[in-house]
Amino acid sequence: MQASETSSERKNTCDNGWVPFSGHCYYFNETEATWDEAVAQCEQRDSYLIELNSDLESTWITESFLLPVSGVEAICPHFFSCSVWVGARCELPPDKFLWNQSGTEIVFPQWAANQPNSGRGVPACVVLQRAGTGNDMYCTKTFQFICEKE
Ligand SMILES: [Ca+2]
């Protein structure tokens, strides 16, 4: 906690187009991509596909970048529409959802009801939904995404 407060004091600004939060900078990519493409595009920006390390970060991302849960049915017809990729993926084995950046198991965001539900044998990648919850999706689907860097 103290380390992140210190780095947040040190870093108050981000490059053009990047939004600061708690010592990190975030970039919203409007053009949808597959999960692999999203990872590669963040790497090209010297960053990584977002890793959510706290409820605070997860909530901040949701409120800052995602559309609201209701009132947007015309452009986001399903509860999972207009989600964003996060940098977590389930490999088989070990059949666990791990963050791409740190290699640790995902704790945030909280899973949506009845999630994860992807079939065994197929890699699954995680989106953050407008409700602030996690859902596993086929990695070849396309979503908008957010890059993160320190
Ligand atoms: Ca799912």
Structure described in brief:
The protein has about 150 residues and is an alpha+beta fold. The protein has a single domain (about 30-150), classed as Mannose-Binding Protein A, Chain A (Roll), CATH 3.10.100.10. About 20% of the residues lie in helices and about 30% in strands.
Describe the structure.
With about 150 residues, the protein is α+β, with helices and mostly antiparallel strands. It has a single domain, classed as Mannose-Binding Protein A, Chain A (Roll), CATH 3.10.100.10. About 20% of the residues lie in helices and about 30% in strands. The protein contains 3 helices and 8 strands; from the N terminus they run H-E-E-H-E-H-E-E-E-E-E. Strands 1, 2, 3, 4, 5, 6, 7 and 8 form an 8-stranded mixed β-sheet that branches. The radius of gyration is 15 Å and the shape is globular. It starts with a helix and ends with a strand. Bound molecules: calcium ion (CA).
